[in-house]
Amino acid sequence: MSDDGRMSSEAELLAACRQFVEQLPGHEHDLLASFDEALVPLMLLAPERRIWRVNHKFTELFGYTGEDIPTLSAWFELTVPEERRQEVQARWEERLKRAREGLRAELLHRCEIRCKDGTTRTVEGICSAFGEWLLFFFVDLTEKLWLEDELHWRDSLLHSVMNAMPEGMILFDEEGAVIEWNPAYARSTGISVQDALGQKCWDLQFRALPEEMRTPEMYERIKGVLQRFFQTGELPERLRFREIVVERMDSEKHFLQFHSFPIKTPRGYMLGGIAHDVTQRRRNEVELARYREQLEKQNQELRQLAQAIRQSGSTIVITDLDSCVVYANPKFEETTGYTVEEVLGKNLRFMQSGAHPKSYYEQLWRTLKAKQEWRGEFLNRRKDGSLYWEYATIAPIFDDDGNVTHYIAVKEDITARKQAEAEVQLLLSLTRGISEARDFLEALEIALRLVGEHTGWVLGEAWIPDPHGILLKNSGVTYLSRPEDESLQKFAQISMEFSFPMGVGVPGRIWASGEPEWQEDISVLGEETYLRVKYARLAGLKAALGVPIIADEEVLAVLVFYTDHSQVEELRLVELVSSVALQLGAVLRRKQVEEENLRLTTAVEQSASTVVITDKQGTITYVNPKFTQLTGYTFEEALGQNPRILKAKETPLTAEDYRNLWRTILSGQSWHGEFCNQKKNGELFWESAIISPIRNLRGEITHFIAIKEDITARKKAEEQLREYAAMLEEQNAELDAFAHTVAHDLKNPLTIVMGFSLALESKWQEFSPQRMDQYLHTISENTKRMNNIIDELLLLASVRGLEGVELQPLEMQSLVDEAMQRLTYMSEERHAEIEYPDRWPTAMGYGPWVLEVWTNYISNAIKYGGTPPHIEVGATELEHTIRFWVKDNGPGLTESQQKRLFVPFERFHQVRARGHGLGLSIVRRIVERLGGEVGAENAPEGGSIFYFTLPKAAESD
Length: 957
Description:
five-stranded antiparallel beta sheet, 33 strands, 24% strand
């Protein structure tokens, strides 16, 4: 409570005391009742210093009754601590004396009273005298003083926090006057705390504005906004958080991020603010911008070099003096498989393959420590364990004082070149060797040895057909990488005892297909797939590769190579060994072999990628020699042209593809894709291209670089692979159907023959001659059925296997007559009628095959025609072909039957069918091999029409 409040209470108590004293004479009974019920603590002291009476409020406050404190001395002894008792008693005695002498109220000193329960309370007292009697009034100040201390503590804490905060803090009261202005805000604005306190917020804000902004209009605007706030509490959002500029008295400008917030009070609205001085940050930003500009100018050449390194097609690595990596470009990751993070700080020796001797690296370091550049080749190991070759240029990097600080290595991946060189060398050695060989077996021996030494395979063997072409036998020529290995010798000896029919075992399958075969691990195969598996396991053989040696479409031999470890198929190895087989097959064509070797050698020597650089408009500014070699355009012819000179007329890329290409590279990104281009001579070729932008020092795109690889061979190989896969799928389907036919149609008559034969063998004595004839006739008929099935299967196989059949003009009437002669018995049995045309147009074909077509069509017409069958045969000339047809008078074909026509091993009319489902599939294969097509349809007037087409014969002069 303030001093004014305390004095007001004292005056009220003094007035109450005077009133009490004045009313005491004659009203003792009423006054005593009022005394006891008074709302303030009272104590009445008799003249003899005896405490005559205390009221209820007194006892409630202090806990003492009149019996507890009979005298004033007892009061002091119980309530005042001993160390202060004398001082307090003396002050009271002085005030009591003055009260008696002046018969007036006296204010007693504030003191701490010890209550009966041991607590302490701070009180003030007033004594009023009337005669020798004294009346004491007490006021309890304990709670008031505690609240005052708490408020003072909180106020001190708030001031301490605000004074210690690095951010500026201000507070305006409901009238807009400053009541808080901490030192941090004073430092930022230049206005001291003493000068700010009590000032209006709009005056201070206007005062802190830069001089050029201090206009009367601005003052009124600021004042209007702030006065509206103090009236309504509405603070515009733009004023809640903003950056302001203040100008101090010393003209120094400070930048503040200022956050304002309203505070609602019972009297209205106060305004608080927190300011973060960002002047130093602004200065740092200006300084940083100036530094960046300076750094940009200083590092232009370095950025240009870094850009070239990042975009380089070469591997670039920078190491410290201990050969630990400090930088590697993206090409390093692409080449090695290691990320930059995996190699940073590591010595590159972990990539060594062990192929180079220690002296090789010692010579390298002698050169570098002499501050000279070193050039050479490395055989290193990628992350996946594969080996690769690189050609490296390693040079020291010097500081301004001429000291070596780092080393930089620029490396080119020459693995393909090395492999190509080795393969070319292998082919050249093979060509010389087999050309000088005395006979075919010696040529096989040379081929096995050279291929085994080049690939590292442990064993190679050669298989050749026997003179009858029935079995594939071991040639007796074997290559062993470890001749001293007894297990390998044992396998080679055992293999001499084996022979393979066509399609059986690895050699037999290759002999049948004419295609290479790769087995990742023969040791896990069953004997039905690999007959010698148990011997291979004993010898430790795993992966196997077999290739045919073919000349003039005939398999002359089969080469099979083995490793001592499992290995997934490598197309490059397959292609390489197939090339060897091709050389062997063409041993008598030496000139062609030499030309092929020359072509391969040339291709290997010029195996670098095509590089083209254009300006931003797409005009060619540079091409490398590979471009000239590949396209046929000289450097002079290409310079100044647009790459569209290579664009093929029927390119697979659309206009939208080209627009996407340009959008990609103009946006600063790299474009990956493939082109079908055209050489100068009109020849088409495929390229895989990466086109990337080249930027100048300002980051602007000035040129584009295209790095392209010729993938024509790969594209052709992919197409051939798709065709081969489709062919395999078709052959597999036919093989399944073939097995079905053999298992059912061939087995049924065989079962009948066996059953009747066993009956004849065991019971022929009991049979009558008629029954004997019946059994023999049944055996004969089913034997004929089996023979017919086998003949047609052989015919189907011959149609599949024969290539290059020579087409001749056909005498079609003769072929139809011969077919009818074959079907005489069937025709007479069914009373068939057949109509022929007056003349036959001449078509081209192969007589024996076309005879089978007529035989099949006419026999089906007899079987499935009407009763009796009426058959028409004829021909219809088209523009380039002739359509031959057979029409019957049968019930026609359902839609389901038409869908299954000409599918191998399908048949209809199961009850009446005598065939086995091969006929129409043979017809289709024959006609397609002859360049025609087959089909069937229902005749409008009833019956079916089966047709086939053949090319027209050229008209003779």
